[in-house]
Write a structure and sequence with these properties.
The protein is mainly α and 81 residues long. It has three helices and no strands. The longest helix is centred in the C-terminal third of the chain and has 17 residues.
Length: 81
């Protein structure tokens, strides 16, 4: 058996124990081949959302004074830690 075939079999063994979960795009059960998605289409939809900026991480802007206070608090925690 070739090295590539052995790697492929090992990959199947690792993913065979995954429990099917809902696709994060359409909620159908995920497929092993496209995990965690159910299809290539849903994987591509998700990729497009990332690339187009549809997914964002909410950020709270801090004032410079808040940084000073945070540094003081962290300094205290490190000394007591």
């Amino acid at each position: 058996m070739s090295d590539e075939a052995e790697k492929g079999e090992a990959g199947k063994t690792e993913t065979a124990f995954r429990r099917a979960r809902p696709c994060p795009v359409c909620s159908k059960l995920s497929a092993e081949r496209f995990h965690p998605f159910c299809s290539k289409r849903c994987a591509d939809v998700d990729l497009n959302r990332w690339l187009s900026g549809s997914y964002t991480v909410p950020v709270v802007e801090m004032e410079p004074e808040d940084f000073d206070e945070l540094e003081r608090e962290l300094g205290k925690a490190v000394k007591h830690g």
